[in-house]
Design brief:
This is Bifunctional NAD(P)H-hydrate repair enzyme. This protein is of the alpha/beta class and about 500 residues long. About 40% of the residues lie in helices and about 15% in strands. It has two domains: about 220 residues, Rossmann fold; about 270 residues, Ribokinase (UDP-N-acetylmuramoyl-L-alanine:D-glutamate ligase).
Amino acid sequence: MKIFSAAQIREADQYTIQHEPISSADLMERAAGKCAEWIEDHFSPTQPVYIFCGKGNNGGDGLVISRLLQEHGYTVHTCIIQHSPNASADHTLKLQQLREAFPANITEIGDLSDFPGLPDNAIIVDALFGTGMSRPVEGWLAGVIHRINDLRSQHTVIAIDLPSGMIADTSSNHFAVVKAHYTLSFEFYKLAFLLPENAALSGEVHILPIGLSPDYILHTPTRYHLTDRQIIRTIYKPRDPFSHKGTYGHALLIAGSYGKMGAAVLSARACIRAGVGLLSCHLPKCGYEIMQISEPCAMCIPDKDTYFNTHFHTGLADARYKVIGIGPGIDTQPETARSFEQLLHSWQQPMVIDADALNLLAKNPKLLQLVPKNSILTPHPKEFERLFGPAPNDVERLALLSKEAVSRHLYILLKGRYTAMACPDGSIYFNPTGNPGMATGGSGDVLTGILTGLLAQGYTSKEALILGVWLHGYAGDIAAAEHSQEAMTAGDIITGLGQAFKEGI
Ligand SMILES: NC(=O)C1=CN([C@@H]2O[C@H](COP(=O)(O)OP(=O)(O)OC[C@H]3O[C@@H](n4cnc5c(N)ncnc54)[C@H](O)[C@@H]3O)[C@@H](O)[C@H]2O)[C@@H](O)CC1
Ligand SMILES: [K+]
């Protein structure tokens, strides 16, 4: 699914108005109609509704919702916030229609002292500002937003299109923003909904289709995408009936150290479950038997060292590996760092670089220049900061992520609720699958295994990344459904992979 900027959303509205064709007033009727239907499906007419409207088109939506809910027996109080002497043309028209149909209970709010007292258990509809917002709300208007937020524990707050005060495609960190329980947004996810800093503001987001032009959506390029099944289906390649294990590549996984062999085992298992043809694991001697017994499908190459991987850079050319995954549990010993540097000097195919291998890069940033093009780096926010430095907010962190991916020709993901995946072509994909149960030791090692396994099978780095992160999250959702978010383990994510391949594609 494409994620458009506020300017593109305005263009999509205008394009639809011209080409469908439909008047803007009717498009507003359609959009607000979807919101009214959603409210009617979820809340009973016995609950009083308070709709707070701005004077732009977001407020216009609120006025239409007010009329439609009253037509269906809801008691609605419409509060028009007088933040400006002028109203948009559609707002003016919809206010006139509301006054004609239901003249009672329309109040104008000129300052905070006009704010109404609410009866118990009301529904607050926030239709103050939508995509027209481009600067912080200040003064008494910010006071209105804070008042709504003070009431949220006793009432249900439903934001129309965007929680008011939130800016659709840039950071609104530290601004006055409505904290909604639900956001009913039109046609597209907004970038703002995917940013961790806004997690507490949009609540449950529901995207309501309002029939914006499919032609516009198809032909308008955008930088941001939210992975969905449609994208996943274009990536996934069913297996060829005439294939053999050579078809699906030989991967080398460099993982584990004394006390951290679990990371290597989890990663190896995930790689195998992701469909790799053959897997070799380079392990410290102490891990040899552990791996042989835990995962008989993996071949093992013991290091010269008992406790750490220190000589994995040798013998690579003979084995004709398709891909190398490195990092889970390898620790950051000087000997491991030396071997890693030598590996980077000799290996030119894409790699998957995770965990301690990222920390080795952070300790010696000049090594980043040696990372083969099209490699995948999988940092969590702390590792990202160690590698590329801090950013003042999530939008600037995304910009930094993308800049590094483009300039270094790498695929870099940034783990989170919506893991962001930056590609060298400048695009950024967000992944919607997964849950907080995956915030558990070993979950990242599983992802490294999956990505390595997909690359070995011939998926491009971009394909492996988007598909791998989707499957990882999907398998995590299956694990959480089976065991609960608390009790699920990284091993359960691996177990869920089979079902993820069968149902998630
Ligand atoms: N035909 C269309 O274009 C459609 C638009 N729709 C609605 O229209 C919204 C966009 O409407 P608008 O472009 O009119 O914009 P908004 O209604 O989001 O906001 C514009 C109003 O807010 C004021 N404003 C903006 N920033 C402010 C600030 N920081 N402090 C105080 N006041 C501020 C402006 O002066 C203007 O009055 C969407 O979010 C959606 O809800 C929907 O009805 C779907 C169809
Ligand atoms: K709003």
